[in-house]
Write a structure and sequence with these properties.
The protein has 410 residues and is of the alpha/beta class. The protein contains 15 helices and 15 strands. A hairpin with a 4-residue loop joins strand 8 and strand 9. The chain binds adenosine-5'-triphosphate and magnesium ion.
Length: 410
């Protein structure tokens, strides 16, 4: 028998409560408790059972901490208000949705909010973890870059796919808090968010490697595992502070982890920092790949980004720089760019990827990775980056300019 949908109600004396109660009953939705105030609501959430808290937008003391507390008990908050400005404020607190007070609207919204985007895996779970990781943990490689779409996702997908091999399990995690695009790039068409599914389990303390793998999509010939990202930026509130760290920790138990991050590094202490996920990913990273674009604005952002990254992370994590969309018409050489980068950071290596519209368009149109599509300039250059990342045991050598580069392989 299907489980009944249960809600907590905090109407705060609002007139709509009288009409809502019978409407919920008719819809088969159970009101577990009519709460008197926010502390009562929070205490009731911890007793379990309810999936949604229906809360009058105007009740006092409804803050981000309360909403986060509810989420921690797998209770999503639905705000009831007609006031647009208040609805915006509630969204910033982490309230999943808002509805007007009409009972039919509230019932529909309750159903919407209660729909958990848990990935249903029709196939049996793959064995976990791979033999190659029986003894240790996979490295976490965060792919970051400043604003301006320099190619973070392109690099993250290319590197993850290139690293995946029969004896190396790789999980690509789309952790861009501004909305994920990895699924789109790889032609994963369903709307399920793997990240939201595992974040929910992490909230509940039930996330382990087997559950994580069930939430991944396996793509391509190399068996790359993909944890798809947020469907919309405002869903980032469901990945509470620290949750991504837990997710990446569990993922590293499965294999090598490549994380597609967002661009911002907003103050982590800001109560609702939009970049919390990015900062959590960078903190968990064993290595950071910084992507910049080769045109003037891209290089300026790269330079600023390297400084901001050092300030945000303390500069302890090894950094590689990938300069993307390099083309001769820009008028500067690789050597000049390396010199510029060295003025701002001491990366382990600097790599260049050519502008190759034809190759990326082919990949985007077919939903395949560059590796699967045969030879292209971009594929070869990405393979070089992948080799450098995948061969940490190769001793770094110093070049005349002082930059440490890796000895070419093969
Ligand atoms: N080397 C390249 N040559 C040509 N086009 C490229 C190259 N790298 C990336 N692109 C294109 O640039 C656009 C942005 O790339 P991508 O989505 O990887 O950037 P991003 O940094 O992840 O951006 P976002 O901020 O949207 O997440 C895409 O259309 C991509 O196909
Ligand atoms: Mg991206």
């Amino acid at each position: 028998m299907a489980q009944r949908l249960c809600v907590l109600l905090l109407a705060g004396g609002a007139g709509w409560e009288a009409g809502l109660l019978p409407a919920l009953g008719e819809a088969g939705i159970v009101v577990v408790k009519r709460c008197v105030d926010v502390p009562d609501l929070m205490a009731s959430a911890s007793t379990g059972g309810a999936a949604v808290a229906v809360v009058a937008g105007e009740v006092p003391h409804l803050d981000a901490e309360a909403v986060t507390h509810l989420l921690g008990h797998d209770v999503r908050t639905l705000g009831v208000t007609e006031d647009r400005a208040l609805a915006d404020r509630l969204a910033r607190l982490g309230v999943v949705d808002t509805s007007g007070p009409d009972p039919a609207d509230v019932v529909a919204a309750v159903r919407r909010v209660a729909t958990h985007e848990v990935v249903a895996d029709p196939e049996p779970a793959a064995p976990v973890p791979g033999d190659d990781h029986a003894a240790g943990r996979g490295r976490v490689i965060a792919v970051w870059g400043a604003a301006g779409a320099p190619g973070r996702t392109t690099v993250a997908v290319g590197v993850a796919d290139g690293l995946a091999a029969p004896d190396r399990r790789v999980v690509l995690v789309d952790a861009d808090p501004y909305g994920g695009t990895v699924a789109q790039q790889l032609g994963i068409l369903d709307e399920m968010s793997g990240l939201l599914a595992v974040a929910r389990m992490a909230n509940l303390g039930t996330l382990d490697a087997a559950a994580l793998v069930r939430c991944c999509r396996r793509v391509g010939e190399r068996g790359l595992e993909v944890l798809t990202g947020l469907p919309r930026a405002d869903r980032r509130v469901e990945v509470r502070p620290g949750v991504l760290g837990t997710v990446l920790d569990v993922t590293a138990g499965v294999g090598t982890v490549v994380v597609d991050c967002g661009f911002g590094l907003e103050d982590p202490d800001a109560a609702l920092s939009r970049d919390r996920m990015t900062l959590d990913a960078l903190e968990a990273a064993d290595e950071i790949v910084v992507v910049g674009s080769a045109e003037p604005s891209g290089l300026a952002r790269l330079a600023r980004g390297l400084v901001e990254l050092r300030e945000a992370t303390g500069g302890v994590t090894p950094v590689r720089v990938v300069v993307n969309r390099m083309r001769p018409t820009l008028g500067w050489s690789q050597r000049e760019i390396v010199g510029m980068v060295e003025g701002y950071a001491r990366p382990v290596s600097v790599h260049f990827l050519p502008e190759d519209r034809a190759a990326v368009d082919r990949a985007l149109v077919t939903g395949k990775s560059l590796t699967e599509l045969g030879d292209s300039l971009l594929r070869s250059a990405l393979a070089e980056v992948t080799r450098a990342i995948g061969a940490p045991s190769v001793p770094p050598v110093r070049r005349a300019g002082g930059l440490r580069i890796r000895r070419p392989v093969g």
